[in-house]
UniProtKB/TrEMBL annotation:
Record bears the keyword Transcription: yes
SUPFAM superfamilies listed in its UniProt record: C-terminal effector domain of the bipartite response regulators, CheY-like
Lineage summary: Bacteria, Bacillati, Actinomycetota, Actinomycetes, Pseudonocardiales
Protein's organism: Allokutzneria oryzae
Modified residues (4-aspartylphosphate): 54
Name used for this protein in its record: Response regulator
Length: 210
């Protein structure tokens, strides 16, 4: 019997997963958690074979929880189950120690097989995600950010609006937007938060202590 802990901040999702998984003769949900911090306690108590982990949660997110589980319980397999297919989040989860990743719209049979594969220590990745990540790896190397783009992202990280950034750098708000669009394209992201996150991860941006 494969013992599973389900980690998701939505009770309806947890209930649905429990209902599906418990219906399989070789799968059983032994615990649930609404965030990464609670998950650490539940996993320590239940010693599951597989943890189904959401990524975006309050208190402690999925990547943070995976990092801690990898350090304290390396034999436990973590299978990410997420709504989002953003490359950088999937890569962060795998680098943190996740065995694999599925999207929440995966058919139930695919989910069951993925849990069984994860329990055996076999890597699991949704076909859609495999195609995206391979495309990213095979694509041209990303361009470096210009000094001005780094400056703009640094001010974004400090919480400044586009207008405030323009005042700080003595440029127009439209120019700030242009720099952000160029940075988004180079970093392959769609929003300000993701741009700062990826730039920090790649060492392109370093936040100054204030």
């Amino acid at each position: 019997m494969i013992r599973i802990v389900v980690v998701d901040d939505h009770p309806v999702v947890r209930d649905g997963l429990r209902g599906m998984l418990d219906g399989q003769p070789d799968l059983v949900v032994v615990g649930e958690a609404e965030n990464g911090r609670v998950a650490l306690d539940v996993v320590a108590r239940e010693s599951p074979d597989v943890v189904l982990m959401d990524l975006r949660m309050p208190v402690l997110d999925g990547v943070g929880a995976i990092e801690r589980l990898s350090a304290t319980c390396p034999a436990i397999r973590v299978l990410v189950l997420t709504t989002y297919d953003e490359d950088h989040e999937i890569i962060r989860a795998v680098e943190a120690g996740a065995t694999g990743c599925l999207l929440k719209d995966a058919p139930r049979d695919v989910l069951f097989d993925a849990v069984r594969s994860a329990a055996r220590g076999e890597p699991v990745l949704a076909p859609k995600l495999t195609a995206k990540l391979l495309g990213r790896l095979r694509g041209p190397r990303p361009e470096s950010l210009t000094d001005r783009e780094v400056e703009v992202l640094g001010l974004v990280a400090r919480g400044l609006t586009n207008r405030a950034i323009g005042r700080e750098l003595a440029i127009s708000e439209a120019t700030v937007k242009t720099h952000l669009v160029h940075a988004f394209t180079k970093l392959d992201v769609d929003d300000r938060t993701a741009a700062v996150t990826v730039a920090l991860e790649r060492g392109l941006l370093r936040l100054k202590r204030r």
